[in-house]
Amino acid sequence: MTEYNLSLSNSLPASRRFLAVLLVLFVGSGCSALIYEIVWFQLLQLVIGSSAVSLGVLLGTFMGGMCLGSLAFPRIISPRRHPLRVYALMELGVGIIGIAVLYGMPYVDQLYATHVGHGLASIIMRGAVCAMCLLLPTLLMGATLPAIARWVEATPQGISWLGFFYGGNIAGATFGCLLAGFYLLRVHDMVIATYVAATLNFTVAVIGLLLASRTSYQAPQVSPTQQLAVRAPGAGMVYLVIGLSGLCALAAEVIWTRILSLLLGGTVYTFSIILAVFLVGLGIGSSIGSVISRQSPRPRAALGGCQLLLMGAIAWAAYMLAESLPYWPVNPTLSTSPWLNFQLDLMRCVWAVLPGAILWGASFPLAMASAASKGQDMGRLVGSVYAANTVGAIIGSLAFSMVLIPWLGTRVSQQLMIGLSAASALLILGSLVRAWWTGRFSGSKTSRWGIAGCSALAGLAIVPVLAALLIWSVPSVPWGLIAYGRYTATWADRLSPGITEEEDVPSGDSRPDIFCTYAREGINVSIAVTESTKGVRSFHGAGKVQASNDPQDMRLQRMLGHLAGLTCENPQSVLVVACGAGVTAGTFVLYPSIQRIVICDIEPLVPKYVAPKFSKENYGVVNDPRTEVICDDGRHFIRTTSEKFDIITSDPIDPWVKGCAALNTQEYYRMCKAHLKPGGIMTLWMPLYESNPETAKSFIATFFKVFPNGIIWSNDVDGEGYDAVLFGQAEPANPSSPGSGRINVDQLQRRLDSTGNGSVAQSLEDVGFHSAIDLLATYAGQASRLQEWMRNAQINTDRNLRLQYLAGMWLNCYLGREILNGIVQYYEFPDDLFFGSDESVRTLRELLNKTRQTK
C-alpha cells in the first residue's frame, strides 16, 4: 500500500462473513480454468499443429484474452452492478462456452483445413482460429478478479483479501492441473474433463447468484472519471515492475520446463508436475504477499525485495538444473512403480523451481498494494495490475521460447532474466530513494524514512554488483543432459566434458569414450550428435537416442524404407514424417522410379545440421534434387496438403513424449490413408522398449483399426523385442486383380536382383538382409491373427490421446521380450499373405517357423 492511512470501508464488515466463501469459489474457478486450458490446448494443437509457431499463437491468444478481459471489464461494466452477480454470470458464460468449444471444434477444423495458407497467411489463420475458440472465454476468465475486486475497497484488508483470492485461484488451478493430468485425461477423455470443468463453473455461478441475492451492495458515490483520477504517485513504475516480473516468470517457466522435461522425461505427467509446482509456488507467494501487504506500511520496499531475491532464485535454479540435479544418483529403471518416480520428479522440481515461483507469486499482491490509493476503483486497479503482469508474461513466453532460446540458448536467457530482475529492483529502490530524498529536503523526513532511504541508497550500489556476479555464475546446460536426459547420471563417467569436432574424436578404449560433436537448443527440441570411440554416431532428441548408425538401429531404419519401397508397385512419391538421421528417407534415393521425396520435420535443425552428419548412411538425401524439406508438424502438414503419395513413412519421436500421441491417433492414420494413392503403403516405427503390453496393444490396435490388413515386422535383438515396423496398405486400384494386398516373394527378389536396384540390394546387405526372404522373415503377425491379443486394447483417438498417458506412465519399463512373446504366441505362417514359387515360400516358412516358434 502506498503511504496513505486508509480506513476500512463501512460495507466491508457486513460482508466479511462471505469472504471465505468467495475464496472457495475462486478455488473452484481456478480449477475449472486449468482443466479448460489443458483441454483447449490439446484440441487446438490437433487443428493448428504443435510447432513452436502454433504453440506461440495459441498461448498468446489465451493469455491475451485474459489480459483484455482484465482491462476491458472495469471500462465496460458499470461499478453500480453487484460484483457477485457479475462474477457469477461470467462463470456461467465460461461454462457454456467451454462446452460449445468442445462440440464446435470439428467444424473449426474443417474451416481451417479448407482455408489455411502458407507463411504469414498461415500464422494469421492460426491466430484467427485460436481467437474464434478462445477469445470470448478467456475475456471472461480475465475479468473475474477485477469483477470481485469491487466487492472490497482500497484498504490494507481489502488488498489482502484480493491477494488471498488470487492465491485461492492459483490453488484451484494447481488441483485442476493435477486432476486433469493424472485422472480425468488419463482415465477418461477430453469430453469428461470438459463436463467436470463446466460443472464447476455452473456450481460457482449458482452459489455466486445466491450470495448476491443475500447481500447488499452500495455502489461508489463518485463518477468513474473521478475514480480514474485517483491514482497513487509512482503507480506507472509499479505497473512496469510487475510487467517485468510477469515477463521473467513466464520466461522461467518456459526455460525450466524445457530443461526439466529432459531430466525427467517429457511426458504429460512431467509437464503436469512442473506446472503444479510452479503454481503451488505462486499460490504460497501470493498468500505471503497478501499478509505483508496488510501489515507493512511500505509494500513497495517489499516488492523491491522480491525482485532482489529473484536474482538469487533464478541463479539457484540455473545451477541446480545444470550442475546438481542431472547428477543426483537416480536411476528410474530401478523401480517399476511410476508413482515412486513421480515422487522423485516432484522433489526435484520443488528443489529447483519453488523459490522463484514463491517470489513471483508474492509480487502480485504487493504490486496491487503499491499501486492502490484511497477512493480508487478496485476493478480498475486490479485490472491494470493484472493486465501489466499478463502483457509481460505474453512477451516473456513468446520472446524466450521462439527467439531467445533458439538464438542464444538457455544460459544467456537465464542471465537476461537476472538482469531484468535487477532492473526491476533498481526501479523500486530508486523510487524509495527519490521519496526519501524529497522528504528530507521538504522537512518531513522521519527516522524510519531515514533508515529506509539509506538502505535503499545502499541497495542501489549493491544490486548491479550482485547482479553481475550472479549473471557470471549461470552455467550452461550440459550436453550430456541434452543427449541422455534422465540417464545423465548413469552415463556421466563416459561423457567428455565439452563439445569437439568429429575429426578430433579419438579412437580406442580410452575414457571418456563418448564425445559430443554437435549440441544445440532448437526452437522445438534440444538436440545433440555424439560419436563413440567405437565409431557409433548417434542423434539425440528429447533426452534420448533417436537414431544412430548402430547396426540394430540401421536395420530398423532401412526396414522402414525398404519394406515399403519394395512392396509398393512402381513408387514415385514419398512422404517421410520425421527426418532423424535421414536413413529411412535415404533408402528412397536408391529407387530410380521415385521422383519426389518430401521430408517433414518439426525441428529445422535436424535436416539442416543433423542429417548431413549421417550423409554416408542416408546417401546424402537432404541434398538430393528430388528432396524437399518441410519444417512443420507432420500431422499439420498432412492435414493441410492436397498432395497424395505412394509411400508414407512415419518415424516420430517416442510415444511417451507429450504431443506425440497426436501422430498416432486413429484420425491421424485416416488422414495418412486418405493421402495415399491407390495401393499406396504406410510404414510406422513402433518401439517395444520403454513400454509395457497395454501401451503396445493400444499402439497396434489403433493402427489396425484403420489398416485392417496391417502387418507387424519385428526388429529383434537376440530374440528380445526391440522395436518394430507397422505396415498398412491402402485399397489397390483394382482389388480383384491377382495378388492384390499380398506379397510376391519372388517378385521382391527380382526387384533386388535387377540392375537398377543393385544399390537397394547392397543397402539391405549392409544391415544383414541377404535376400528378400531375409527381409520378409522379420514378419511377426498381422491384424487378422491378433484380434484375441488386442481385445480390450484402448484405441488412441483425438478425443482421448490415450497413448501418451499409457506410454508416459510406463516409459521406465523394459518389457520388450514380454510384448514380442505376446504377439508371436499367435504366430502361424500366413499363407494368405505370402505367395510365389514353392521353393521360395517353403524357405520363408522354414525360416519363420525357426525364429517365431522358438520365442
N/C terminus separation: 74 Å
What fraction of residues sit in β-strands? 5-15%
CATH superfamily (homologous) name of the largest domain: Vaccinia Virus protein VP39
Largest beta-sheet characterization: 8 strands, mixed
Number of strands: 15
- Give the CA-based shape: globular
The level of helicity is 55-70%
- Order of strands, main sheet, comes to 8-7-6-9-10-12-11-14
C-alpha Rg, in Å?
30 Å
Mean pLDDT: 86
Annotated CATH topology of the largest domain: Rossmann fold
The first-level CATH class of the largest domain is given as Alpha Beta
The CATH architecture of the largest domain is 3-Layer(aba) Sandwich
Number of domains: 4
How many helices in DSSP terms? 29
Short description:
With 855 residues, the protein is of the alpha/beta class. The protein has 29 helices and 15 strands.
